[in-house]
Amino acid sequence: MKSINLKENQFIQFHQKISFKFDGVKYFGYKGDTIASALLRNNINLVGRSFKYHRPRGIYTCGIEEPNALVQIISEYSEPNTRATIKKIYEGMEIESQNRWPSLENDFGSINNLFSPIFTAGFYYKTFMGPHKKFWKNLYEPLIRRAAGLGKPPKDFKGISNHIHHNVDVTIIGGGLNGLLAAKSFINSNYDVLLIEFEDRLGGIINNSNKISLIDNKEPKDWLKETIQEIEESKNVKILKNTLVTTYNYINHLIAIEDRFVGSKPIEGKVNSTLHKIRTGHTILCNGHIERFLSFQNNDLPGIMLSSSFEKYMCRYGLSPSKEPVIFSNNSNSNSLVYSLIKAGLKPKAYIDSRSGEEIEPNLFDLIRKNDVPLYTNSQIKGAFGNKKIEKILVEDSSGALNEIKCDCLCLSGGINPDVHLFTQSKGLLDWDEKDLTYKPSKPFQPTITLGSASGQFNFDNLNSEINEKLKTFKVKKLDVKLELNTNTKYNIEKLWEVSPQKKSLWAKSFIDLQNDVTTKDIRQAITEGFDRIEHLKRYTTNSMGTDQGKISSINALGIVSDLLDKKVNEVGTTIYRPPYAPLSFSAIAGRNCYEFYDPERKSPIHSWHIKNGAIFEDVGQWKRPWYFQINKDESMHDAVQRESKNVRENAGILDGSTLGKIEIKGEDALEFMNLIYTNSFTKMKQGSARYALMLGEDGMVKDDGIICKISDQHFIATTTTGGAATVLGCMEEYAQTEWPNLKVFMNSITEQYATFNISGPKTREIMKKAFPNINFSNEKFPFMTFQFHEFNGIPIRILRASFTGELGYEIYIPSNSAPKIWDNIQSLGKEFGLAPYGTETMHLLRAEKGYIIVGQDTDGSITPIDLGLSWMIGKSKKDFLGKRSLTRSDTIREDRKQLVGIIPSNKADKLEEGQHIILDKEIKSPVPMLGHITSCYYSSTLGHDFALAVIKNGHSMIGTKAYASTSSMSTTGVDIVKPVFYDEDNKRLVS
Amino acid sequence: MLIINCPYCGPRDQSEFSNGGEAHVKRPDGSKEIGDREWGEYVFIRANPKGLFYERWVHTHGCRKWFNCVRDTSTDEILVTYRLDEKKPNLNNFKSVVKTPSGEPEVGSGNFTVEK
Question: In the CATH hierarchy, which fold is given to the domain comprising A607-658+757-847?
């Protein structure tokens, strides 16, 4: 189609030329143009290929409702699926069309259109089933993904977004006529008001159409200027432009996204979008209406456009996409397009209306007559035809005769709908209006007010009374605006959803959802197959499931379904509109919580030393912990771990245990509280002694473990696992507040206040003596599981004799600030004894040799202390503790529960792996009853072979027997089930 | 997102709080004999009504205090919050079961936007 430029206007100046590239070819547009208006100016209307059938598609609308014209912005990190109808061009912009190969004109995928009779609703579900489930993953899915789809994901996107919170009394959504009037009435009131407009200009219908001729006896343009100035000068009304409200949540919580670079290229490193999170007292929806299309054969051809969009291109962009479009309508909304065309010195090639001559507005009738526009009343378009663009249409007139009209553009109007998306997101109820044939807001669920066409007021005659009535509660000043219109005031529509094609053909397509390539035939088929509930039908056909959520077509689908089912539209209901209103990018949602701010990294006070000394780190919760230390770049992890573990067994090793959770518990009733929280009894425990303790859930399962130090009956320090610290503190606080509020007890985390060094190995005592010469480390003065407070060079320290490796060991607790100094000191003093740092992997190996469990690795929330063989830790004489009663439930006393055992390969040279299943038979023959699985597995250089911990059914009584471990290659390895202790069973090394 | 009125700190954003499930579930007294059934119900069984519900919340990223509330599970409206040591409010004091968001059936997905 051939477009022409009209007169300049306030939005577009013809001297400000901008060049941009579309599919590699350079074009010119003007400042203020959207991609769509600039392309239309260059007579380009084929802008993309459709989702499924790869049909040529053009620009259908002039706004956010656009289903077809989605493009990829190459110059912005290849941002896909951008609506060409709202994205403004800038100098040097590069744009590509989507879903075509090798080119837009000659698209290989359009072969799908030939096969389209078989690609009907449910095609994929029915077809790609066999012969093997691997076919889906390896063949069908990759093929379908290649052929179908929208744009390509951006490769290296680094958009930055900010979040801003607002707390206001009133939010007005939509800066059109009603939004401006509402905002105007709030000027200088006591309310904080936010006025949000999606476009870069306020005014809405005043800018986009010629409907209104005078406001308060002024030119609409002038009235608009004055009003905006008044609002801008007010102290209590804030305007947000370029901001789209995407989400209306509970409790009047709105999410809106602001584009910071409208009409210019986003600058790298600058915030390119702002996400506004708005909490408001009242929401006033003035977001207007959306025009819908009509279904007939080939209603998707490039050159077909909504009539109000055509008018918007004329009024906003000074551009008539065609010199003589044909107009096809079933309602009065297209009147103003006829008026605008004639005002611009153009005229429609034909005006086709499904309504009868009596129903058509007299002033439109006059206009058409006066200008000799061919008029077809009581007529319908049976189909549009052409090669990649509309060339002719077939009109059935009132006598039933067929007329062929040659044309390059067809403007459609199937009626208008209030934009109810936000209203239904807010959980408001809709009601079907039989006269206006649309869903209108009826009962709000929240303090929501709808005004103007958003509330279904398609006529301007009660503009003042509606606003005055609905804003009564605010006691703001009353409006008395005088409006004069160019066209009719009464909205009138005749029911028409679909025109059936002239010739029945398998290839004849009348689309009901342009973006997802759903045809009216698909809807029929879905209903035939039993998907007659609207939500089922939507999912089966994918109708209105595109990124446009069927904004111009979903009501049409309801109309067709209600006719097919012979039900009222209200009985059919509507599918729910879900947020977001339009797609918003993940980077906007993420805001600043990405990259290094995504999840905080916690580092021990010794972290920089670890880096300098070749530590390879492991993430434990948010903590960075040394996994192992590389003495040179070539050392493998296996070698490093064997070297570190051997050194601990023979000399001494030091581990940074600062990440262990530490909780201080104080108060008059601290002893009673600890007795209730942990399984162990702390009553008879001496002051200055420590105890390994277990914490259960109320279901009796092990939740955490740690060492409890008793300073006095009123003061304890508990350690927790690194990952469990927050949960354990939370659990203690919960029970202290909710179950035992009578206990006087307080608790606090001291994890970050203290660093912890775990030194262990046979030579540890010598090192400790040297490092802390004034402390007596003899076995008599400092026995196993006791702790002492000391002062070292003025630094208060606590030393606990405990071990997680099975060797003689001490844990030193030091205020974090002083820790690096003491760590360095121990390192240099320990050198002569062979002291070397070790990481978490070596710690895991050493503890497994001793059969010490790790909560979360050897347990999984279904293991009781009894299953672990730790019955001795249960304070049976205690009346109560967390989970006590659960330990005697029928399920927990079952004999065939999974229990912790040790596993060694019968042939010592065999290898084992974590996660291997333990089974009884050597031969794997389905079904294979599983006894349990390996939870921890290591190679031990001390033992000279692999060993493992496992939880297996009835494990305790199976000790001494043989079983098999299944391997991933469907074979088995013979294993011996043994006690879960592999090293120093009598604890001689530990306590001497 | 909800706004929750912490009885200690005042109205705050939902993201500061954690949910603690049904409120007023009494932990059986451990010093007495507890039957399997009684204990099992305490550990595993919680009410899950559609409508008014006594619920526990904790101001995790705030004062870390636990408190109770009455929430309408069908609308997510929090009708009242109160301290643990306060008496539990009578549900009859609240406007029966608030009409569900979209007049949907009493049991169901809530997937309706027109009155049924």
Answer: Gyrase A; domain 2 (3.30.1360)
Q: pLDDT tens-digit profile of B59-97?
A: 999 999 999 999 988 778 899 999 999 999 998 888 755
Q: Do A881 and B44 touch (CB under 8 A)?
A: no
Quick: pLDDT tens for A643-657.
999 999 999 999 999
What are A799's two structure tokens?
């030393």
Lowest mean pLDDT among A106-110, A463-467, A513-517: A106-110
A549: contact with B, CB 8 A cutoff: no
Structure tokens given for A755: 């660093």
> Which has more pLDDT, B114 or A114?
A114
The answer to whether A698 faces chain B, any CB pair under 8 Å, is yes
Q: What is the mean pLDDT of chain A?
A: 93
How far apart are the C-alpha atoms of A920 and A964, rounded to whole Å?
Answer: 6
pTM to 2 decimal places: 0.85
Q: Would the pLDDT of B98 be above 80?
A: no
List where CATH 3.30.1360.120 sits in chain A: 607-658+757-847
The arithmetic mean of pLDDT across residues A13-24, rounded, is 94
Q: How far apart are CA A304 and CA A814, in angstroms?
A: 76
* Beta-bridge mates of residue A833: none
* Collapsed DSSP state (helix, strand, coil) of residue A231: helix
Tell me the CATH class for A661-749.
alpha beta
- pLDDT-derived band at A575 (thresholds 50, 70, 90) equals confident
| CA dist., res. A754 & res. A814, Å (int) | 5
CB contact under 8 A, A880 and B113: no
What is the structure's pLDDT at A672?
Answer: 97
Residue B35 inside a domain? The answer is yes
Could you tell me how many helices (H) and strands (E) chain A has, helices first?
27, 51
Closest alpha carbon to A286 in A169, A415, A195, A184: A195
DSSP string over A644-661: HHHHHHHS-EEEE-TTSE
Q: How far apart are CA A389 and CA A250, in angstroms?
A: 45
**pLDDT reported for residue B108:** 42
CA distance A272 to A415: 37
| Residue B113 falls inside a structural domain | no
Q: Which of A411, A111, A972, A970 is nearest to A962 (CA)?
A: A972
What is the architecture, at CATH level 2, of domain A1-156? Roll (3.10)
Query: Which CATH number is correct for A293-414, 2.102.10.10, 3.50.50.60, 3.40.50.720, 3.40.50.1000?
Result: 3.50.50.60
Q: Could you say which architecture CATH assigns to the domain A894-992?
A: Beta Barrel (2.40)
Q: Residue A257 has what pLDDT?
A: 96
Q: Above 60 in pLDDT, residue A359?
A: yes
CATH number at residue B80: 3.30.2270.10
**Measured between CB atoms, does A251 come within 8 Å of chain B?**
yes
Tell me: the pLDDT tens digits for A135-183? 777 777 777 776 666 788 887 767 789 999 999 999 999 999 999 999 9
Q: Which residues does B contribute to its contact with A (CB < 8 Å)?
A: 1-3, 20, 27-31, 34, 36, 39-40, 42-44, 56, 58, 60, 64-66, 75-76, 84-85, 101-103, 111-115
Count of domains in chain B? Answer: 1
Assess if residue B99 is contained within a domain: no
ipTM score for this prediction: 0.93
A761: left (phi over 0), alpha (psi -120 to 50) or beta: left
Q: Tell me where in chain A the CATH 3.30.70.1400 domain(s) lie.
A: 661-749
More confident residue, A298 or A577: A298
- Give A140's DSSP letter: I
